[in-house]
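Readers outside the structure-tokenisation community will struggle with the description of the input data as it stands. Showing the layout once, in full, would remove most of the difficulty. For illustration, here is how one protein appears when written out as sequence plus structure tokens:
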Amino acid sequence: MQDIYVVGVGMTPFGKFRDKTIKDMTGEAVAAALSDAGVTADRIDGAFFSNAVQGHMEGQHMIRGEIVLREMGIQGIPVVNVENACASASTGFKLAVDFLKAGNGDCSLAVGAEKMYSDDRALMFSAFDSGWDVSNGEEVAQRLADLGAGVEEPEGSKSPKPYSVFMDVYAGFARLHMKTFGTTQEQFAAVAAKNHVHSVHNPLAQYREAMSVDQVLAAPPITYPLTLPMCAPISDGAAAAVLCTGEGIKRLGLDPARAIKVKAAILRSGTDRPPEDYKNHLTRLAALEAYEQAGIGPEDISVAEVHDATAVGEVIQIENLGFVEFGEGGPASLRGETKIGGRIPVNPSGGLESKGHPVGATGIGQVFELVTQLRGEAGARQVEGAKNAIAENGGGLHGVEEAAACVTILGR
């Protein structure tokens, strides 16, 4: 089986763009990725278009990829539409890898795009309402929120303004972690502050203002222990990656020095488990499988991008990825171990909290950052000597964990 490489990446700025359509952003990201790879659209053998909410927001429930990609000359090839909630783009990336591994071509395209921001706030926030079993959504939401029962919510720690119901779910995960391991709100704030500092040096990030731990704690509350800077914003944006086989790089005359090897690409769905059984969290199991496939361990990882839809997500995921023991994610974050220059830099892009979270594009946005880091092209946010990188991206909720999760390992 041939080795697979990322040979080109492209990404739009993430943010709120009233004047840009999903076609505009997809075109920008794909053009950048093709240019970065040094290939033209007619050399793509298969394309995977990831999107989660265009049907909800615009009524385009079907053939989204065929429509948006034809305008940039990508036609007459297999185009697969991918929806896997917030893990859509990383799922599409894995499918693009598997397409090449199966011998279906030399070159594939993975692209994710999302147009989420709207002046209709009810429409915008309700885009997340089907990220779980809608047949008993209220019951599911309450059960997940109740995970943190027993942790007192201080008066005034809940926002009077509308916000995504998923924030209540993440707050439940946070309070369960606090109750189980003694994690503190200050430790979650340290994650958010670190990511906001990182994003200052990312020109494509939605927010680029540094924040201190005290500023994060003093910010408007969402739902305890989460304050506004601890939560990913609503975002528009797109990201794309061009992948090639080793033989394809030779046939297309591409520069092998800028090709980044895909060492592992794992997709798992969740399982029924007790909420306290962290060792069987789907991301933990996916990470173990990815390390085995890549032939390395967590100690070999130079840099990571993880799914921090809220700060608690980063704490949980650095434990699942094996960077620290279970329960040590909060203290390690407060000690600065996950900042650029620390023991294991996490989310040098600024993460979802600062870079932004256009859900259908997020996973390939992570790939964009890691490829940039492994090439040594990240500028002021560069992790020195980056050799192996890992991305974790989760989507939806089922039971007491994400419905789906992807773990991807890239390396020189």
